[in-house]
């Protein structure tokens, strides 16, 4: 072979080899490229028994791509070979599955028999649920969206055993009153402490947007609350807001729109014909002297209820953006809540935003700045709630030409009354509230087991309130108009410097923290009133005369040192100890600081080697003992104070206003508790707690003689005990490929007793200041519930003459006391007539899922406990009040009309002077109820073609029905501020029944 031919041959071989290599690399490249491209991946998700799981979430880790399993547990998703699927479903442990080269995946989710190892938020940190030794309740965000409200406190009604919630009225923006494990005070606020993202914010949640909540944890016993010392006596509510996860940007949006109507319960007032017949039945009907008293009144039937009410509209819109990587991730949200009240003339609007960022510039440093803000607007031209009940149907606010009649109209039967519509033509109020919170937090990782954390927060609120009284209105014509303006500003600073220790030594595990905390408050408000101006102007500068000015500054501070340690041996035996020392500005030097502590233990029985009950998935026993405390409601009770705002003939002066008590000390509550947590058959879960709370050195502003100008002094007056049982029982009744039905019951009982009163006082009487018909007193006396009503005891109606009767105590010559009936109110003596504390209360919730449908219902109930229905003193007055409408009798009530009648109501007469409507147990009613709080039906779609990972549409109803024999508006509403008082006034704003339509979208 010639050289030229050899070269050609070699070139040909080389070419073949090159082609082979090229083909090889092309194939490898093709395979590699194919592995980087998304492809369709199918699979099934089932439980450990092989049953398909319907509605399980399947998503590609680190992306927004996701889907849900169908009725056979099957799914299809686009993912690359390098991707990892994250699969989760409620009640099962989540799992991650690499895709690899598999085309069909068979994924098995294990029953979450390790629910106790779930991480939950506790005081100043997080902890595995399995290692908890205290009593707490964690509520996830999906359990808090069953009602529509701008106020976070209202979300908690019926969500946890032992947590009694008197929901706010139907007025937009109203707030609930909360009592956790009974009252630990006799006359102070029962409001728990709120902590948002580790920051102590006070006795309410402020302007927190419910849509921003990730979870709420309610701390109830000493083991969990003692770390908050003097601020934890009423329980602690920890709120964790949503934050970004490590993933691509995710956007969520939600919209709810609905309608509300007043739900007036069993209180119904008379129409024109009914009221006429009622007056006609008076035993002295011939004495009726007002004008127009004739049968034509039966046809005068103006409906004041219809005038004042309409269909309210509620709207709630929220959106959020969330995402980032391990180094930087952020969460941003916006929200708008707008509600027009079901009583005309009241409009509430709130705007919210929140921005949270986690920035990790170094492995050892994480910086966590955040800011949130809100703006509330209220336009108040609200129609009179009182007039809805009290104004007579015989009186029309309009004349024959449709014009509004003036006040004290001679065309009215009740010519002594005002027509509120007349002033409402011009008068109105408006307010604006701003709230901003800013945090600069950071964590420094010193070692793998030692971390320093710093939380630094400032909160500012600003409020303005204006009320315009027109010169043409009856309340403004005497001074030619009045303008009132109020402004307030508040700053609250909070800082916590904390070091954490977390290390394991073989089977031993220790988690501890030590911290310094400082919290202070500064508030200032000013008010001014001017009179005399041209109608239509609303700034003080236009007034001709300054009428009044006022203002004050308030300040307080608390500093604390705290320590907490948790120990675990082999995850079987658990122990916790905590200590806190608080110093507060509203105690004197003799008692400036207070010490609080807790000690607790737990035993995970199911982890013992000898424990062989396969049907028991988890079983833990807990026990705890510790103390928390309270401070007085006033800021400076330790000082002798003078009021320098007094004046005489425009000459300033000073008057004594307070006698100080330098020995006033901390109100302390010592709590003993035992508990059990268990899970059975992978379906049934049980939590049982028993507690005993003893409160000593009760703080109370004791009334004293007013001769010196001082009417009360703060003292420590006695001791109080609360004990109770809390139970949560639930499970999956049905759990298969088509259906999932879960039912949960929670129940709480609490008995309350005054154990001792200090000094020479055998008892103390507390007045609730009900109204013009008298005051329903409560009695503090050892052996009694601290909410015991102290009233004249109603003895019914005399069947012979229809006269009202009460009981009196008669003492014979030998000192023996007996109870006898009297028809003279003045002879009746006050006795204990029951208490407002319910025997037990709780809720029932159920969740039903079928394919892509879901149905959720929440019921609430309460048994025992009394409500003093003061409104009946005015609207069920037997003729004592002839200037207001009267309520219809309940079905099982009757009125005496002739001798021999066995009736619930005495004979009615014009200007009745029998005192039958005066304060007595006649108006003390049972507060039992069973209520459907919410009912929601929803449907879910997955629309990957539109980049929508989940779309849910739903309709919900709130306050749909209430079964109760209580004759008032609502057995849950009686509350004053942040406290439950058990008395219903004459102008209760009813709760509302809402029908809401909503949609949630996740991109």
Can you put this structure into words, describing what you see?
7% of the residues lie in helices and 51% in strands. It has a 22-stranded antiparallel beta barrel. Strands 10-15-16-13-14 form a five-stranded mixed beta sheet, with no helix packed on it. The N terminus is likely disordered. β39 and β40 form a beta hairpin. The protein is globular and about 100 Å long. By secondary structure, the protein is mainly beta.
Keywords:
1003 residues; 22-stranded antiparallel barrel; five-stranded mixed beta sheet; globular; disordered N terminus
Tell me roughly what share of residues is in helical segments: under 10%
- The residue-averaged pLDDT reads 88
Q: Could you describe the largest sheet, including whether it forms a barrel? A: 22 strands, antiparallel, barrel
Structural class: mainly beta
Radius of gyration computed on alpha carbons: 34 Å
Strand content: over 45%
What is the strand tally? 52
User: What would the principal axes of the Cα set say about the shape?
Assistant: globular
Contiguous runs where pLDDT drops below 50 for at least 5 residues: 1-10, 12-36
Brief description of this entry?
With 1003 residues, this protein is mainly β. It is 7% helix and 51% strand.
């Amino acid at each position: 072979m010639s050289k030229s031919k050899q070269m050609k041959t070699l070139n040909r071989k080389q070419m073949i080899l090159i082609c082979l290599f090229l083909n090889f690399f092309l194939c490898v490249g093709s395979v590699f490229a194919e592995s980087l491209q998304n492809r369709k991946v199918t699979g099934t998700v089932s439980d450990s028994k092989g049953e398909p799981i319907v509605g399980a979430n399947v998503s590609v880790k680190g992306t927004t791509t996701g889907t849900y399993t169908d009725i056979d547990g099957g799914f299809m998703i686009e993912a690359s070979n390098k991707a990892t699927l994250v699969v989760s479903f409620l009640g099962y442990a989540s799992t991650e599955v690499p895709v690899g080269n598999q085309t069909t995946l068979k994924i098995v989710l294990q029953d979450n028999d390790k629910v106790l190892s779930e991480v939950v938020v506790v005081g100043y940190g997080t902890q595995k649920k399995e290692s908890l030794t205290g009593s707490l309740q964690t509520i996830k965000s999906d359990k808090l969206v069953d009602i529509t409200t701008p106020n976070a406190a209202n979300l908690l009604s019926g969500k946890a055993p032992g947590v009694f919630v008197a929901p706010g009225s139907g007025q937009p923006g109203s707030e609930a009153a909360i009592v956790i494990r009974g009252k630990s005070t006799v006359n102070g606020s029962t409001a728990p402490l709120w902590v948002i993202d580790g920051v102590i914010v006070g006795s309410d949640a402020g302007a927190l947007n419910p849509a921003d909540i990730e979870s709420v944890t309610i701390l109830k016993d000493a083991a969990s609350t003692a770390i908050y010392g003097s601020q934890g006596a009423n329980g602690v509510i920890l709120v964790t807001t949503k934050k970004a996860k490590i993933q691509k940007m995710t956007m969520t949006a939600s919209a709810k729109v609905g309608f509300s109507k007043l739900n007036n319960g069993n209180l119904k007032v008379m129409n024109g014909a009914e009221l006429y017949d009622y007056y006609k039945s008076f035993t002295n009907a011939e004495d009726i002297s007002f004008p127009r008293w004739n049968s034509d009144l039966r046809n005068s039937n103006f409906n004041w209820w219809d005038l004042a009410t309409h269909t309210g509209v509620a709207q709630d819109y929220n959106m959020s953006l969330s995402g980032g990587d391990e180094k930087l991730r952020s969460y941003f949200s916006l929200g708008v809540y707008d509600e027009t009240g079901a009583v005309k003339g009241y409009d509430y609007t709130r705007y919210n935003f929140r921005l949270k960022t986690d920035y990790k510039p170094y492995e050892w440093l994480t910086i966590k700045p955040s800011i949130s803000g809100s703006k509330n607007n209220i336009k108040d031209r609200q129609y009179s709630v009182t007039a809805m009940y009290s104004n007579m149907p015989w009186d029309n606010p309009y004349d024959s030409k449709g014009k509004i009649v003036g006040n004290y109209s001679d065309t009215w039967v009740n010519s002594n009354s005002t027509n509120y519509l007349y002033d409402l033509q011009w008068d109105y109020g408006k307010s604006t509230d701003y709230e901003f919170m800013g945090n600069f937090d950071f964590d420094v990782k010193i070692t793998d087991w030692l971390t320093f954390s710093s939380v630094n927060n400032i909160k500012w609120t600003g409020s303005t309130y204006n009320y315009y009284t027109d010169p043409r209105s009856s309340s403004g014509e005497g001074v030619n108009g009045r303008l009132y303006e109020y402004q307030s500003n508040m700053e609250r600073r909070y800082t916590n410097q904390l070091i954490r220790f977390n290390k394991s030594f073989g089977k031993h595990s220790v988690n501890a923290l030590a911290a310094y905390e400082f919290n202070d408050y500064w508030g200032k408000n000013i008010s001014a009133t001017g009179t005399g101006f041209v109608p239509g102007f609303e700034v003080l500068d236009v007034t001709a005369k300054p009428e009044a000015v006022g203002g004050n500054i308030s300040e307080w501070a608390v500093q604390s040192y705290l320590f907490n340690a948790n120990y675990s041996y082999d995850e079987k035996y658990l122990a916790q100890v905590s200590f806190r020392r608080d110093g507060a500005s509203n105690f004197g030097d003799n008692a400036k600081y207070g010490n609080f502590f807790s000690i607790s233990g737990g035993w995970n029985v199911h982890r013992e080697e000898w424990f062989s009950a396969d049907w028991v998935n988890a079983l833990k026993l807990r026990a705890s003992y510790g103390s928390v405390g309270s401070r007085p409601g006033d800021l400076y009770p330790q000082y002798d104070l003078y009021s320098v705002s007094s004046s005489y003939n425009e000459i300033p002066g000073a008057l004594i206003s307070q006698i100080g008590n330098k020995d006033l000390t901390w109100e302390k509550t010592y709590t003993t508790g035992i508990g059990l947590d268990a899970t059975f058959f992978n379906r049934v879960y049980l939590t049982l707690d028993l507690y005993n709370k003893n409160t000593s050195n009760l703080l109370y502003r004791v009334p004293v003689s007013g001769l010196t100008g001082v009417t009360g002094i703060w003292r420590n007056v006695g001791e109080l005990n609360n004990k109770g049982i809390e139970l949560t029982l639930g499970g999956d009744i049905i759990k298969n490929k088509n259906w999932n039905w879960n039912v949960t019951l929670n129940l709480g009982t609490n008995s309350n007793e005054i154990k001792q009163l200090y000094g020479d006082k055998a008892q103390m009487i507390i007045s609730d200041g009900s109204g013009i018909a008298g005051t329903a007193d409560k009695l503090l006396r050892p052996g009694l519930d601290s909410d015991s009503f102290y009233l004249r005891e109603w003895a019914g109606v005399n069947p012979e003459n229809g006269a009202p009767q009460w009981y009196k105590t008669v003492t014979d010559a030998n000192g023996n006391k007996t109870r006898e009936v009297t028809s003279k109110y003045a002879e009746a003596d006050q006795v204990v007539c029951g208490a407002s504390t319910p025997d037990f209360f709780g809720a029932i919730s159920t969740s039903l899922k079928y394919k892509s449908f879901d149905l959720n219902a929440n019921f609430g109930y309460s048994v025992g406990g009394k409500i003093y229905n003061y409104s009946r003193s005015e609207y069920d007055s037997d003729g004592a009040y002839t200037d207001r409408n009267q309520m219809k009798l309940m079905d099982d009530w009757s009125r005496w009309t002739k001798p021999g009648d066995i009736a619930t109501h005495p004979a009615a007469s014009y200007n009745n002077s029998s005192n039958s409507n005066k304060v007595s147990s006649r108006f003390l009613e049972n507060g039992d109820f069973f209520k459907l709080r919410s009912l929601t039906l929803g449907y879910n779609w997955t629309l990957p073609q539109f980049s929508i990972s989940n779309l849910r549409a739903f309709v919900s109803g709130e306050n749909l029905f209430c079964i109760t024999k209580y004759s008032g508006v609502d057995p849950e509403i009686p509350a004053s501020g942040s406290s439950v008082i058990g008395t219903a006034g004459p102008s209760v704003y009813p709760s509302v029944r809402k029908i809401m339509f909503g949609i949630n979208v996740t991109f």
